[in-house]
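Holo prediction. Input below; ligand is guanosine-5'-triphosphate.
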Amino acid sequence: MHNVESKELNIHVIGVGGCGGNAVTNMADLCSHTNIRFSSINTDISALHQCKNHEVLLIGESTTKGYGAGADPEVAYNAAQQSEEALRTLIEDDTIIIMIAGLGGGTGSGATPVLLDIAKKNHIDVMCFVTLPFKSEGSKRQEIASNALEEIKATANATLVLSNDSLVSALNETVGLLSAFRHCDTQMHRIVEAIITMLTNTGYINVDINDFSHILSLDGDTALGVGIAEENSSLCSAVTHALNNPLVNEQNIVGAQGVIVQLTCKEEPSLMAYEEMLATLQALIDDTRTLIISGVTVASDLPYFGEVLIIATGIPRKEQTKRLGTTQKENVVPMTKLLKASGGGLEKAYLDIPTFVRLQGREQG
Ligand SMILES: Nc1nc2c(ncn2[C@@H]2O[C@H](COP(=O)(O)OP(=O)(O)OP(=O)(O)O)[C@@H](O)[C@H]2O)c(=O)[nH]1
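Structure of the complex:
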């Protein structure tokens, strides 16, 4: 835990289905924060038996008998409805829920929308982290995932979509399936950890729960990321790295209505580096009307100079962009603006190795 004062908040990380449970197990092991509640819910009792380090809840026991939803989201939807009371009790004291699910199977796709609905009725903010299945898993799973994603996006305050297929292109071809999944879990963990740090620590410039709720309330797509700065002068490249994670589907923040940029530094950053970092972000957003909320926290025990967390919401949805007839293209970053904002120093940063690959090297070394 970074050595700054902690705030009282009930943050609950909940995994739904097999993928969600695996991710929560890994996160609960890695989490450096105390007072964070971790739970898994599933229709499959044997999967819940693997979750040894956190709370579990079996749903729909009277219909599925604990044997899972058989890759049928409708079965899981009914199971979750049947256990509505237990789900409501599970989350009743929560301030924020971070929900994690793999889409394409039964439980994650069918039960997540029900839990989201209950959270919404109880006025709890929810950020959803979901994975999309490998293409090789077949078109039926893709279809299930895409229907579930639509429902989730309509209800969650923010949704981060990670693509399992991107694991294949981002990692070495020889990587094992479980290592690839663990890698995906690590990416989610980094972002979740940075969000918890921001919300529970009091910064010199503070982003609080109301700022967070406001940004999450903006309608549209979400982009999230964490970038590492080895030194004061690399804060700009940390911004671009944060939005350059190949596993994350949405990296383009052009036209975002609201952005939180939380800088956590080992020591005080220079004013110039801080301003350049914000200018880089402005250039990526390319819209002067955007509400930008920036926070700065000094955490002397950070193992590198700084960490930049970006949460961009209210990003025009693709179909919205088409309907409006704009010329903005997906994932096209206005490079000229970037270079101008960074005084040219960004060119190297942009071509640099993505943060998560460098971090992987650090983990292995
Ligand atoms: N990144 C990642 N993806 C996973 C993991 N486990 C499964 N998946 C993906 O998530 C999708 C759903 O799998 P599960 O979460 O096991 O399925 P479920 O939602 O529990 O559904 P049922 O078992 O049918 O009830 C799969 O199609 C995979 O693409 C994991 O540990 N990490």
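The longest helix spans residues 177-200. That is the main takeaway for now.
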